[in-house]
Here is the input.
Amino acid sequence: MTSLNREDHRLFESEGVNAMNKSELFKSRERRILAAALSTARSKGALDFRMADVARVAECSVGTLYGHFLSKEDMMAALVQLAVQRRTEWFELVQLMPISSAEKFIVLLLSDRRRLVQDDVLAQLEVLVNNTELWCRAADQRQIALRNTNRELSEVLQSVLKTAVEVGEVQLDVVEVERTAELGRALMLGVQLQASRQTLGPVKLLQDEAIMMDALLVLLEKAGLNAPVGNWHERCFEVLSQNQQQLEGLVLSEVGVA
Here is the structure.
């Protein structure tokens, strides 16, 4: 799988690298393939692109693609992994911010929603991979990584609620903590799925974040969490603005594969 072939040498020469070892070359080519897959998904559709389309854009054979990915679904799963890898650092940062538990809960969910709205094709891929059986055709290691990634948001939301319990902001048992976190996720997923039959992209009609903040606050109040005081909408928007630059960064460089 890592032996140098004619395509390896062409990529080697085209990138002007004279000392790239096999492992580095393999990783470089895989990123090029993923960039081609993302470009192809954007032009053909998240479900409609073919491996042959990706190979043509990446300037390699279909056989080379299968040297990196077990299937088209495995390739889709790899794109989802790249799309979500930047959010872990952000989640950790939010938990350290001097805002209330309710505000952290709301910001975490809305920041992830903003990430999905930022790129509708990646959002479609993420929903398809994480909420259907497509992930079952991914490589074993990628399936494990996807399961962990899919649990990450729930675990962070539960951590915020557990902290609220510890400091006396609310009285919830373990089951109630899990249920409240999942209800928050379900609300955001429901908004994302409110779209046409042809796409799973986030619906533009429901992009009023102030309304979404209020809906999440109602959920938290029903769970017994104290409502944030003062200009909490403004504080949430201020925190969300700190994440905007991160969201605007490219997942993959598509230079040379368009």
